[in-house]
Amino acid sequence: MNxxxxxxxxxxxxxxxxxxxxxxxxxxxxxxxxxxGRRDVPVETLFRMxxxxxxxxxxxxxxxxxxxxxxxxLKFHESWRSKDVxxxxxxxxxxxxxxxxLQQRVPDLSLFLGSTFPIEDSxxxxxxxxxxxxxxxxxxxxxxxxxxxxxRYTAMFPDIAAAPPCVKCHNEHPKSPxxxxxxxxxxxxxxxxxxxxxxxxxxxxxxxxxxRASAIESYEAYLKKTASFAPExxxxxxxxxxxxxxxxxxxATFSARVEERNSAKTLNALLKAKLAETTPTATxxxxxxxxxxxxxxx
Length: 298
Ligand code: HEC
What we know:
Layout: H1 10-24, E1 41-42, H2 43-72, E2 76-77, E3 88-89, H3 91-105, E4 109-114, H4 127-139, E5 143-147, E6 152-160, H5 164-172, E7 186-194, E8 198-199, H6 201-226, E9 236-238, E10 247-249, H7 251-278, H8 282-286, H9 290-296
Parallel strand pairs: 2-3, 9-10
Antiparallel strand pairs: 1-8, 4-7, 5-6, 6-7
Helix pairs in contact: 1-6, 1-7, 2-3, 2-6, 2-7, 3-6
Bound molecules: heme C.
């Protein structure tokens, strides 16, 4: 995997790499198995970590840039890329921008935000994803499965109407097939797929770094676009956020917030996955092995 440009966050990921090696490699000799190390991290762990990263960037952009920005008069639009549209990407389009860049870096991985009531037709789930989305909607739990029709390992995570702008904008959008969204509804699912069922620790960290770089670059594309806005609707780019006025955070300020929020979350997901693997389950704890029971019997 070729990563042409990794921002400062690579440092945080390097720390993760070291932790990852300790967590997943049980003996030093195992590290010698092949160039990228042994593929002993289940793809589910990769998906959970990617999703922790992505959900955090999505929430940051929606609630601290788009939400307060709209109140200040900043515009966000699906045709934000058009020359004569003085607007930034909607949250769903920042995600698509990230997905496209990520696929260039990691061709085996794909990211898609779908729904059963999409504003944009091409975001409608099909086939197995449609079936698993029905379960996800019912229990609000992530779904992991092998999609037989594509031969790809797939994960779907609920995309929740977590903030008022989600509901307001979708209900008011002329192309929305549904106008009664409420706060906390499952509006769709962030859907990841990957070609293999395991990755090595090295691949895990490389893919996470590729996600981080792609997300930051997508935000940078928005900043570049603001330079072409008409003066009355052009935000000042610097250290301040839209909650304080016609401002948007510059790349360093935005990246620092992403690093601050995400590194801990991602590390926690890694630790949780490892703990789940090594901690005995509740039933194992409740019923000690037969030999032990026999010994402690009076
Ligand atoms: C200012 C308007 C706006 C806001 C705010 C907004 N969306 Fe959207 N959303 C859209 C538009 C427009 C699309 C379709 C974009 C495309 O793919 O062209 C979309 C796409 C989506 C999709 C993919 C399915 C579809 O409808 O095409 C989901 C799921 C979604 N949004 C959920 C959310 C959630 C959850 C939030 C809040 C965290 C949110 N949206 C905030 C306008 C908005």
